[in-house]
Amino acid sequence: MKLKLGRHVFGLAAILFGLITFAFRDFSGGWQQIRPLGTVPHREFLVYLSAAAQLFGGLAIQWRKTARLGALVLLATYLAFALLWVPNVLAELKVYDRYGNFFEQSSLVSGALIVYALESRDASQRRPGLARLGYGFFGICVISFTLEQLWYLSGTASFVPKWIPPGQMFWSITTTVALGLAALALLSGIRALLAARLLTVMLIGFGLLVWLPTLFADPHKQFNWAGNAQNLAITGAAWIVTDYLAQKQTNLASS
Known about the structure:
Layout: H1 5-24, H2 43-60, H3 64-83, H4 86-91, H5 96-118, H6 128-151, H7 153-159, H8 168-188, H9 192-217, H10 222-254
């Protein structure tokens, strides 16, 4: 099974993460789950190791011969970042932001897992069961995206550009409902491909309308660069899911 544009977008985001980390000489964006690493010995080595892993994985995933290796490197990297959220979740069980950030990182794990499972010319090396696991977990992550926006509805509205009619809260509610419907479609299998495509388009819209302008507003702020990279990475994961479903549909039609 050949995955199309999704893995290229996903890899581009990883390359961007690596470049940001090298440029600022710090973990991209100062995400809270990696703050404990600030006190460990040889922290600078870990910073550069993280950047190198994402650069290598992002480049390797672009070519089919090395896509599985690149996906495996990114899978391990994003899994480590996701698991570093667990202590934060346990420490603040009533704060949904901690769960939300865990699932944001986990959605990247899902994308990398699908590529690793399926991107091979040799059918004997493919692992459709792992791909289904990645797909299902991505659907769960979309549920979390929905709950996070619902929990912080006013905060979500503040990200919407004020010039977009009919208003910030309207789009906050609309995108929250759209995420919920996408999660239901993905997990039920009903109109799942359409939902994955629309979700990908919506995430692209988030990138263009919400995150990209932050770079023009303050290009020296690492968080703005990392936010763009994170949104692009989640978009890439959603695109991988879209490619996965489209290929499955094609295989069913030809069988």
